Amino acid sequence: MSHAKKSNVSLAILVAGLAPVLALAQGAADSKVQPTALRSIPAETTAAAYVDKNWKVPRTSWGHPSLEGVWSTDDLRGVPMNRPEKLGTRETLTQEEFLERARTDEGGRDFAVNVGTFLRHEFGIRSFGYSSLIVEPPNGQMPKLTPKGEALAATRVRGTFGPGPFDDFKDFSLYDRCITRGVLGSLLPVIYGNGLRITQNPQSVAISYEMIHDTRIIPLDGRAHVDGGVRQYMGNARGRWDGDTLVVETTNFTDKTSLGVNGGGPPNSEQLKLTERFTRVDPEMIEYRATVDDPGAYAAPWTIRLMITSRPGYEMYEYSCHEGNGAVSHALSGERTYERQVAEAKEKGLPIPARAVEHEQIRNGVPAEGQRIFNINAGE
Length: 380
Description:
The structure is a single chain. This protein is an alpha+beta fold. The chain is built from seven helices and twelve strands. The strands form three sheets. A six-stranded antiparallel β-sheet has the order 4-12-11-10-9-8. It has a four-stranded antiparallel β-sheet with strand order 3-5-6-7, with no helix packed on it. The longest helix has 22 residues, at 327-348. The radius of gyration is 22 Å and the shape is globular. The chain starts with 6 loop residues before the first strand and ends in a 17-residue tail after the last helix.
C-alpha cells in the first residue's frame, strides 16, 4: 500500500502526509469511550519479567534468547516522543493521566474500526503508562542541535508534507521516494505499517520493517564494522548478546537521514553511533531502548524506550511502495498545473491563485476563495 494516494492539484500540494495527521486527529477526538479491560492497566506493569522474577526468556533451538516473530509498535501510538514539560522527570503517568490516555486510545480504536475509511487505520490493543518515548536525558526532552546539526536540519526537505515548490527529486524526502525511513523512523509508531518481523539463526539476526520494506542483517560473529568510507542509510550494524539482551551497535551512517517519525524530523550526522537493546520481557513484549550518540548533531546523547508487542492475527504483507506511490509524479504534475494557473491569471489580469502552505488549509474541507480541490483518482 502506498503512503501517497491523494493530491490537491490546483495548489500543487500532494497530500501524502494528510492521512496520518487527519486520522490521528479524528481518531483521538472521542476520549469518553471506556477502555477495554486489557487497556485499563498500564501494559508495562503486566510484563512477565516484571511480575515474576523467575520467568524465563524463551530460547531458540541453539540456545539464544528468542526474539522471533511478527511484532508491531501500534500500542505505543499514544505516547509522545518528548515528555510534556509539566511532567518534569516523571517517566510514568499517574493513574488519572493514564486512564485519560487509555480512553483516548480506545476512542481512536473505536473510530478506526467503526468509522474511519481513509487509508488503513491501525490501533493497538494495549495502552502504556510511559510519559514519553525519550527517557534520557531525565527530563525526557531531545537535546538541542549543535550548530552543525542546525545546518544539517536546514538541508532537509519536508517533501509532500510541505508547501513545495516541487521541481525535481531533490524537493522530495527519502520517505516520499520510497527509499528509507532510517532505523528509528522505521520503528516509531505512525498511522499504519508499524509491523516488523524478526528472524534469527546462530550467526545473525534479521529485522524487516513493514513500511518501506527495509531489512537489516545484523551479524553476531564479532566481525568489525566496514571501512569508514562506506556510508549507508541504515548504517552498518553489529550485534552481540549481553545476557538475555541483544545489543546492536550501528555506525557508518550517511548524513542524509533523520531520526524522527517516518524518517523525518531532527537530522543525524555521519558521526552517529546508534546502540539498540532488545530484551524479551514477556511472551508478547520486547523492551527496546536505543541510544543516539551523535556529537555532530546533538549537544548530548539521548535514549528512547518503547515496547514492541505482538497481537493476534497481525500479518506483514509486501509493501509495494514504488508500485503504488504517486507522491513524486502527482506533486510534480500539480506544480506544473499551478504554474499554468498563475500564468493564465496574469494574462487575464486576475489575482494570482492563492497557494496553501500547510495541510491545515486543506484538512478543513473548505477551500479559500479562488482555490479548487479535487480528487484526481475520481477522474475529474
